[in-house]
Amino acid sequence: MAAPGTQNQLSIHVGDDAVPKRLRREVDDNDVDYFQRAQWLRAAVLGANDGLVSVASLMMGVGSVKEEIKPMLLAGCAGLFAGACSMAIGEFVSVYTQRDIEIAQIKREKTRNQQVAGEREQLPNPMQAAFASALAFSVGAVLPLLAAAFIRVHKVRLAVVVIVASLALIFFGAVGAAFGRTPMVKSCARVLFGGWMAMAITFGLTRLIGSINGLQM
Known about the structure:
This protein is mainly α. Helices cover 80% and strands 0% of the residues. It is built from 7 helices and no strands. It has helices spanning 4-17, 21-30, 34-63, 69-111, 126-148, 154-180, 184-210. It is elongated and about 70 Å long.
């Protein structure tokens, strides 16, 4: 008969080896810092969503007063270029300002001979943030352009832009919910409704302005 201590050690050893991989993954998931993950996830999803909604709304606005495909595509391309540059410059300035603030704080702490509690995170990279923002915006913006590029019938083109934009909005909402571990349906519905509102308002107001005497295109 084995000693009691030997039996306890054997049980513990067997128990550790018998832990399912799924349970281990769940334990690892509990250690994930979702706040840190939300930082880059928010920037990526926001950039792609902004590019999609901005360009789709711009194309819908132009399409409300012009039936030809060329003006819609030109407006969409202009929106893609302008928006990507704006996102990149804005993110660069914002992150560079944050970097300067952190560097100044580090210098103040060294001057005061204060010991920093814990390890300081790596300083943000403005160029990397600018490139990532421009890329995310462009990914979202190119979707409605591709959807409308080969459709000649005006009403069908507008409908396809709305459908593609809606599907992409649902996808972006689902990705954000999956990585952030937030309610899936609520996230998708919020993003989809916001995109619909932007496209509808742009379409309506542009059509209204285009109908005014002296402003017809």
